[in-house]
Write a structure and sequence with these properties.
By secondary structure, this protein is an all-alpha fold. The protein has one domain. Helix content is 86%, strand content 0%. It has 16 helices and no strands. The relative contact order is 0.14. It is a multi-pass membrane protein. Belongs to the multi antimicrobial extrusion (MATE) (TC 2.A.66.1) family. MepA subfamily.
């Protein structure tokens, strides 16, 4: 059976796990190597290294935002076009996406390198942190084209019905990074620059792997020369659908900056380092949820395009139940092992105490995040960009930013930690309302 045809015919439960498990494994390993990176930096470079990486993190989020603008937008369109049995346009979307990625990488790299130091200073890099942050970010930006290609086109591999290969792409990248990090930091004494170099090399291998696949006989869709020329209607469609994850990541960057300034004010550089650890642990715990979300996306998109709405509903329901269960397990794990987890990154007792408290409070509503992520992703999968954008921005901007600015005035550093769960609760309620209306309109409830 053609991989894309299976999306509309195989049993939903079997299909969802076939797509989700590779995505979960790939994303878990991907998140794990970010955690391992931080452990190596924290123990090999020290607290200054952790703070430098955290300060530079918003720049990486902005880069990822532009990658998602193209990668997620294109992959969603590909799923829908395959559901409509329109393979020619799916290939045209793939070709346009590659061209846009290359143009974007060049523009972003030049702009980033030209204005890097003032950007880092604006992000809160103090004199003792600036040199490390600058070295790390220069290397990451210089090799960003590999990140854009690997990330952007790997989404399309999954969308065309090949989740195992998409997983393998991430496993290869993560494995190389995990091997090279200790070699460069400890063996070759390259410090924080070694961590960045390991990341770029691993992304380069991933990019070459993905390009090789689309030029091979194994792929359903092919990169064809005639489709590399951008077509206005396709570029606009990619941008429109990709706008929600783009703004989500952009908002995450802005939130991180606001967080960093608030943390510096109420807890100093140590609080920034603690937040860096908390973010990486949270990312690791949420990767299974994101994997289920990615696994469900092509199934929902294909069946929505084929007007098989009951299959859309069944996919959504099973994905929400699985994501909520995983989130609950993560919540229990955090509440029991909070301080032990922070201690893996650095042995400073003050950092462990601060980070443990932050981790426990910030993820106190983790069980409901699974529902919110899957439900918001549904609107992305069916091409309803405005709904997806609103639900995404409700947490990241409309609720979270005001909470970060308001609560510390009353509760100090604890108020910063509390902002996250308050935003989680409010956005979950709003997402539930919109999803209920949507499912009623499809007449599946």
């Amino acid at each position: 059976m053609d991989p894309s045809t299976a999306l509309g015919e195989e049993p939903i439960g079997k299909l969802l796990w076939r797509f989700s498990i590779p995505a979960i494994i790939g994303m878990m390993v991907n998140a794990l190597y970010n955690v391992v990176d931080s452990i190596f930096v924290g123990n090999g470079v020290g607290e200054i290294g952790l703070t430098a990486v955290t300060i530079a993190f918003p720049i990486m989020l902005v880069m990822m935002a532009f990658g998602m603008l193209i990668g997620v937008g294109a992959s969603t369109l590909v799923s829908i076009r395959l559901g409509e049995n329109n393979r020619a346009e799916a290939e045209q979307i793939l070709g346009n996406a590659l061209t846009l990625i290359i143009i974007l990488a060049f523009v972003m790299s030049v702009a980033g390198l030209l204005f890097l130091e003032p950007i880092l200073q604006a992000l809160g890099a103090e004199p003792k942190v600036l040199p490390s942050a600058k070295i790390f970010t220069q290397i990451i930006i210089s090799g960003s084209v590999f990140m854009y290609i690997g990330f952007g086109l790997n989404n399309i591999i999954r969308a065309e019905g090949n989740p195992r290969l998409a997983m393998l792409t991430m496993l290869i990248s993560a494995g190389i990074n995990i091997i090279l990090n200790p070699l460069f930091i400890f063996g070759m004494k390259l410090g924080i620059g070694g961590s960045a170099l390991a990341t770029v090399i691993s992304q380069a291998v991933s990019a070459l792997w993905v390009l090789g696949y689309f030029f091979s006989s194994k792929s359903t869709l092919k990169i064809r020369l005639r489709y590399l020329r951008p077509k206005a209607a396709i570029v606009q469609a990619i941008a429109t659908i990709g706008m929600s994850p783009f703004f989500m990541q952009l908002a995450a960057s802005i939130v991180t900056v606001i967080y960093n300034f608030a943390l510096i004010r109420y807890g100093g550089d140590l609080a920034v380092a603690a937040m860096g650890i908390v973010n990486r642990v949270a990312m690791l715990l949420l990767m299974p949820v994101m994997g289920i979300s990615q696994g469900a996306q092509p199934i929902i998109g294909y069946n929505y395009g084929a007007q098989q709405y009951y299959r859309v509903f069944q996919t959504l329901k099973k994905a929400v139940l699985a994501a909520s269960g995983i989130s609950l397990i993560g919540f229990i794990f955090i509440q029991i092992f909070d301080y032990y987890i922070i201690g893996l990154f650095n042995s400073n007792p003050e950092l462990i105490a601060m980070g443990g408290k932050g981790l426990r409070i910030m993820l106190s509503l983790l069980p409901i995040i699974g529902f919110q992520v899957i439900a918001a992703q549904y609107f992305q999968a069916v091409g309803k960009a405005k709904h997806a954008l609103l639900l995404t921005m409700s947490r990241q901007v409309l609720i979270l930013i005001p909470m970060i600015m308001l609560l510390p005035n009353f509760f100090g550093l604890t108020g910063i930690w509390l902002a996250g769960p308050i935003a989680d609760l409010a956005s979950a309620v709003l997402t539930g309302y919109f999803l209920y209306r949507e499912l009623r309109a499809l007449k599946v409830m």
